[in-house]
Amino acid sequence: MKLFAHFRVANICAMLAMTWVIGYQVTVARCESQKAAAAIGSKRVEALIAAMSIDEKLGQLTQRPGGMRTDDNPEVAHAKREDLKREVREGKVGSFLGAFGAEYINDLQRVAVEESKHGIPLIIGNDIIHGCRTIFPIPLAEAASWDPALVERSAHIAAVEAAAMGTHWTFAPMVDICRDPRWGRVAEGNGEDPYLGSIIAAARVRGFQGDDLKASDSLLACAKHFAAYGAPEGGRDYNTVDISMATLFEVHLPPFRAAVDAGVGTMMSAFNEINGVPATANRFIMTEVLRSQWGFDGFVVSDWTAVTELVAHGYARDDAHAAALAIDAGVDMDMTSQAYRTHLAKAIDDGHLDIRTIDDAVRRVLKTKESIGLFDDPYTDPELHKKVILCDEHRGVARESARRSMVLLKNDGNVLPLKPGIKKIALIGPLADNQRDMLGTWAAIGKAEDVVTIRTGMGAAVGDEVAINFEIGCQIEGGDVAGIQKAVEVARASDMAIVVVGETAGMSGEASCRSNIDLPGHQLELVKAIHATGKPMVVLVASGRPLAIPWVAEHVPTIVQIWHPGVEAGHAVADVLFGKVNPSAKLPITIPRNVGQVPIYYAHKQTGRPPSDSFFTSKYSDVPWTPLYPFGFGLSYTKFGYSKMKLSQVKMKPGESITASATITNTGDVAGEEIVQLYIRDLVGSRTRPVKQLRGFKRVSLAPGESKTITFTLTESDLAYWDSNFEFKAEPGKFVVSIGPNSVDGMSTDFELIAE
Ligand code: GLC
Predict the structure, then answer these.
(1) 663 and 574 belong to one structural domain
(2) Spacing, Cα 474 to ligand 1 middle (Å)
(3) Is the dihedral of CA 496, 501, 505, 508 positive or negative?
(4) 97 lines ligand 1 (CB under 6 A)
(5) Number of structural domains found in the chain
(6) Which residue puts its alpha carbon closest to atom 1 of ligand 1?
């Protein structure tokens, strides 16, 4: 153990050295200047810090639930509002979450600005994750678009609507990398890959914040959950995270770094521990990495009661100890536990905490409030939201986002797009005429009534030309199978059947983990019964996570993963089914054959006995070792051919770059878009390397018969990783470069990085 302990210390020190190397190379200028700037605020901020009592300072580091009870009893609502106003007036709170509505928020803000001693405005945060009232596809679905520009537009629209409702700050983007679909919050992230996840994280930050944080349609963003929240043991939310430092830095931190480099204004500390140290008390990541190395100069908010949960973790003796640990680690604002305002004044008096730690946290919070214009313009135009909420333009972008997120997994016999001549379609399943679940998890103030169901969308697309005969068949979970026979009869009486199965919105999201990722309830029985009619058939999977659908994959000719597609679900599904749009989405996460394969992801290691037909190799005896559908996979209504792959050179000197290109041809008879992907493999490393790593992707539109050459540039930093000495660098040796339609297929060739 001693050796291991030394390794860990060396490991940490090396990590510090490694991150310093990065820091030095990439951000030394920014670091120094930001450190200097971070040490002082504006004259106003410094004057406020000088004038505030310790309790008033701790009030600024306290966030409270600010949601109004919506029951009919106006007296209760009024009393609740007066309670909150009293806390504001007394300077005991600096931020609320869960409060919506410009009138209500202006009312609270007026007390802060005009009645409290120092007139410091409140900052209002909310979970604006994939839309505010216009709800977009869940983030995992938007990641399937591999379209950062579209993701940015979607985030901007969310900001426009949320800001109009009085919100200043969103607890998004959630950028946790996840390779375990049992975890309910996989729905909320960008999938399994740090490269794709980083690009999308940055796009969301840009979309939420825009170019001017003081603009009326800008929303301060918050990258969460720092860090490695997506790697809980067993895929169980809040569970232990015990990973190597290499995995932490190679897989889980890059999207946070990308968010910081994109200018994210805040970060949120995670509930989980990381290798024995809870994130919310983890000075190494919260200060050494985040601030000293990456140059982050915003503020960190804890997750909900994560400060006092340090006691449950067995890391703090009591709430007072927890508060001191968290603020000292670098967590500036306490979300809802009240431990900061209850205990830190005594910690200062007892000499357990330096007042400068408090002042630094207050400075970061006040500088952020200043940077988003709250001191200059603290109120929201109460009429604004009427012009922007759920407007046609926003719905139009939600529809485009949904269309681009739907992954065509199978299309044998080209059942899709639906052909003219079909006169009767049986539309079957518990998600076919369903509004609530189409919104997915974390739907902010989205309303089920806003949702265009698949039944409505298909009806609108065909009018009277085609009969859409709906029959639910069964419930998503529970219930009985009595309705299946009726659904079979409707299918028999129709020309073909569309069966929509999957999950409720509540089956994914926070604390919504599943030990079984099969289709819930009797849905597979329903699919089998419809399949037995022999009618042409399409299955649409509406879920917040990858579901294991091996029987469906084997027997049903056409399958589309539609996720939870948001308010425009029905129109987007109809656009795909009737060929108004040719699907181009690609999986941002692997779909397993069954939960026993988990964790299963494309960027895995080779091992000394890679899976093969030889007996003594790494595989299961009861299921193939390959996934049902791999990362990056997605079909089109046309076909694409890959040819003429070449490299600009076969030897690369340090500091040089190399270009890799291939020709993509539309060999089908309809126009389409292909997301061409570039992967590398470092064949030999001083630490073992994954069999593939995504290092580029480009969308190409091609008419039937058209060809285009797509070129990627690889630099030395694309080849770099943290080697056995935890130095971030590329090691000389052979690399394989692949260009293809997903993480399995495509063309490969190799080159050598030569030593100095
Ligand atoms: C929740 C979530 C976090 C969210 C916060 C406020 O527990 O973990 O993602 O932003 O509390 O709702």
Answers:
(1) no
(2) 33
(3) negative
(4) yes
(5) 2
(6) 304
Atom from ligand 1 closest to the CA of residue 222: 10
Q: Considering only CA atoms, which of 307, 564, 570 is closest in space to residue 451?
A: 570
pLDDT digit string, tens, across residues 633-679: 999 999 999 999 999 999 999 999 999 999 999 999 999 999 999 99
How high is the pLDDT of residue 37? 54
CATH number at residue 649: 2.60.40.10
Q: Is the CB of 171 under 6 A from ligand 1?
A: yes
**Distance of CA 424 to CAs 428, 489, 572, 579, Å?**
13, 13, 20, 17
Query: Tokens 């007390």 identify what position?
Result: 111
> Cα–Cα distance between 572 and 583 in angstroms, integer?
11
Structure token pair of residue 372: 């988003």
- Give, to the nearest 10 degrees, the angle between helix 355-371 and helix 339-349: 140
Residue with CA closest to ligand 1 atom 6? 304
Write down the residue that tokens 């569970």 correspond to: 239
Average pLDDT over residues 175-193: 98
Cβ(510) to ligand 1 under 6 A? yes
**248 has pLDDT over 60:** yes
Residue nearest to atom 7 of ligand 1 (CA): 304
Q: What is the pLDDT of residues 689-719, one digit of tens each?
A: 999 999 999 999 999 999 999 999 999 999 9
pLDDT in tens, 120-158: 999 999 999 999 999 999 999 999 999 999 999 999 999
Checking if the pLDDT of 33 tops 60, the result is: no
For the segment 262-286, the average pLDDT, to the nearest whole number, is: 98
pLDDT of 331-357, one tens digit each?
Answer: 999 999 999 999 999 999 999 999 999
**Cis amide bond preceding 225, omega within 30:** yes
Q: What is the DSSP letter of 184?
A: G
Identify the residue whose tokens are 């029959």. Answer: 471
Q: What is the pLDDT of residue 24?
A: 39
Host domain of residue 743: 640-753
Does one domain contain both 404 and 464? yes
Active-site entry in 180, 303, 332, 360: 303
C-alpha distances (whole Å) from 27 to each of 16, 294, 498, 529 are 15, 7, 54, 60
Predicted pLDDT of residue 608:
98
Which contacts (CB < 8 Å, 24+ apart) does range 335-338 have? 335/63, 335/97, 335/268, 335/301, 335/302, 335/303, 335/304, 335/305, 335/306, 335/307, 336/63, 336/64, 336/65, 336/97, 336/304, 336/305, 337/302, 337/305, 337/306, 337/307, 337/308, 337/309, 338/62, 338/64
Whole-number Å distance between alpha carbons of 64 and 756: 57
Does residue 303 have an active-site annotation?
yes
For residue 115 the two structure tokens come to: 């009645």
For the chain, give the mean pLDDT: 94
Inside any domain, residue 370: no
Asked if residue 534 belongs to a domain, the reply is yes
CA of 446 to the centre of ligand 1 (A): 17
In a domain, 740, yes or no: yes
* Predicted TM-score (pTM) of this structure: 0.95
For residue 344, which phi and psi values (nearest 5 degrees)? -75, -25
**What spacing in Å lies between the alpha carbon of 303 and ligand 1's midpoint?**
6
Q: Which atom of ligand 1 is nearest to the CA of 225?
A: 9
